[in-house]
Design a protein that fits this description.
By secondary structure, the chain is an alpha/beta fold. The protein has one domain: Obg-related GTPase Ych/YyaF, coiled-coil domain (DNA polymerase, domain 1), CATH 1.10.150.300. It contains 5 helices and 5 strands, in the order ββαβαβαααβ. This is OBG-type G domain-containing protein.
Length: 202
């Protein structure tokens, strides 16, 4: 049984759950899957009630200590509000899923920039004891500098082309912007039949 760990961003409270999943047969036919394999899914749900008001991953927001518990995930699932409801007030006063996505992605970029800056400082002071360690350190330094440049332009780490050696050299950092992202539109029940009619989804 395969295992996937998912970080889910966008709910109003935090929790976690585990579930056993198997894809429907029609999905397997749609993607020409050779076989159906059951998998175990562990999701860490992070509530973000203050999106747009504070920095999520520093001492003001969720905290670096908390962030350390969610770094080792296989993907990120962003649940984005796409429904109007006067009884549920949005922190920014209006429903704007693109803005919410941009804010969360920017916070992830800031978090990774902080990680990379600290790691590069350590690498500058480090002296490899053997040639193999030196090659790995050089690969890591080169990778981090390339990723740092991309992040400064607002691009995620996954947008940077890296060799297998470079990917392996930075794996221990668990950069969240390296992970694939799935966006889920949180729509009203009345939109479930025709979600494309929702202007926030289109």
């Amino acid at each position: 049984m395969a295992t996937a760990r998912v970080l889910s961003l966008g709910f109003s409270s935090s929790s976690s759950f585990s579930a056993s999943l198997i894809l429907p047969r029609q999905w397997c036919r749609l993607y020409s899957a050779a076989s159906r394999t059951s998998m175990s899914l562990k999701a860490v749900i992070i509530g973000l009630p203050n999106v747009g008001k504070s920095t999520l991953f520093n001492d003001v927001g969720l905290g670096n200590k908390f962030l350390s518990h969610i770094l080792e995930v296989d993907s990120i699932l962003q649940v984005v509000r796409c429904f109007e409801d006067d009884d549920i007030v949005h922190v920014n006063g209006k429903v704007d899923p693109k803005s919410d996505i941009d804010v969360i992605n920017l916070e992830l970029v800031f978090s990774n920039l902080d990680q990379i800056e600290k790691r590069l400082d350590k690498l500058k002071k480090s002296k490899a004891k053997d040639s193999q360690s030196k090659v790995k350190e050089e690969a890591e330094k080169s990778s981090l500098e390339s990723i740092q440049e991309a992040l400064m332009d607002g691009k995620p780490a996954r947008s940077v082309p890296l060799t297998d050696l470079e990917k392996d050299s930075i794996h221990q950092l668990c950069l969240l912007t390296m992970e694939p992202v799935i966006y889920v539109a949180n729509v009203a029940e009345t939109d479930l039949a025709e979600p494309s009619s929702n202007p926030h989804v289109r």
